[in-house]
Amino acid sequence: MPKPNPARLRRAATTAAVFDDSGRILLHQRSDNGLWALPGGAIETGEQADESIVREVVEETGYIVDVVQLVGIYSDPKSTTITYPNGDVVAYVSLLFKCKLTGGESALSDESIAVDWFSPHALPEPFLDSHRIRIDDAISGQIAAFYR
Q1: Are 138 and 70 in contact (CB under 8 A)?
Q2: What is the rounded CA–CA span in Å between residue 146 and residue 148?
């Protein structure tokens, strides 16, 4: 049986908008492409979405969070399809959660070459473009989830 074309598959993922008391947002610089981005990743088999983002944040940044609110659902293939350095192409449906910081400390991993806090209005470069709208959505104050 031929291997499915990853570009024709969708995968569920989560991202986190974590803010400190000064209103800065937590970002990490990805080791796979060097771009700054929100922490997040694929939901693993047997895992709920809220469990996924708590795990991803601690894995990629060292910080411990609790989920506060679903901010939005992002599924436009133009902004959620990623080609990885090894050639894999994955189209995600990503859930963005606003999270509150509850512990931990900055730590690097095999997925992160830097972790830091930034003003949402002064993002570092190079930045993952598809995450800009997610940050705008997270700071909008809207209660209902966005669907993009």
Answers
A1: no
A2: 6
Instruction: Supply the DSSP string of the chain, one letter for each residue.
Output: -PPP-GGG-EEEEEEEEEE-TTS-EEEEEETTT--EE-SEEEPPTT--HHHHHHHHHHHHHSEEEEEEEEEEEE--HHHHEEE-TTS-EEEEEEEEEEEEEEEE----BTTEEEEEEE-TTS--SSB-GGGHHHHHHHHS--SSPEE-
Tell me which amino acid residue 146 is: F
| All structural domains of the chain | 6-147 (3.90.79.10)
Q: CA geometry: angle at 72 spanning 133 and 103, to 5°?
A: 90
The Cα–Cα gap between 105 and 91 comes to 31
Mean pLDDT, rounded, of the chain: 93
2 CB neighbour count, 10 Å cutoff: 4
Question: Residue 84 has what pLDDT?
Answer: 77
Residue 105 tokens, joined:
């400390």
For 30-66, write each residue's pLDDT tens digit.
998 999 999 999 999 999 999 999 999 999 999 999 9
Contact 70, 145 (CB under 8 A): yes
